[in-house]
Amino acid sequence: MTYDQVKSLKPEEFKRLCGVRPETFNQMLEDGLSQQGTKQKTGRPGKLSLEDQLLMTLEYWREYRTYFHIGQSWRVNESTAYRIIQKIEDTLTKSRTFTLPG
Questions:
Q1: pTM (predicted TM-score)
Q2: 4-21: buried (b, 16+ CB within 10 Å) or exposed (e) per residue?
Q3: In a structure prediction context, what are the per-residue pLDDT tens digits for the chain, which is 102 residues long?
């Protein structure tokens, strides 16, 4: 499911699917990933939007499926799924807004 399909879910259903509330998802996009979207990129544009990349990462955290299975769900290569998830994790970690206690 892409973000366009998921955003119309009720907040309870959104949290059941992603593991976070819609407000937290939007805050992750604004605070944590906003710098990433403003970088000047060269080459071919990515297949997945920033929202879909975050959704893919949350799906991985929620279900801990293999990168192969995540890639098949999102119609990207296994290595692409790995790179996207690592990039989103690193960006959210560097933002220091979304950390676990301790």
A1: 0.85
A2: eebeeeeeeebeeebebe
A3: 889 999 999 999 999 999 999 999 999 988 766 666 556 667 887 889 999 999 999 999 999 899 999 999 999 999 999 999 999 988 888 877 776 666
Per the listing, tokens 């920033």 go with 50
3-class DSSP state of 79:
helix
Assigned domain for 19 exists: no
Sole residue written with tokens 């605070």: 31
| DSSP classification of residue 43 | S
Burial readout 56-89 (b: 16 or more C-beta within 10 A, e: otherwise): bbbbbeeeeeebeebbeebebeeebbbebbeebe
CA separation, residue 91 to residues 11, 69, 70 (Å)? 25, 23, 20
The total number of structural domains in the chain stands at 1
Does residue 3 lie within any of the structural domains? no
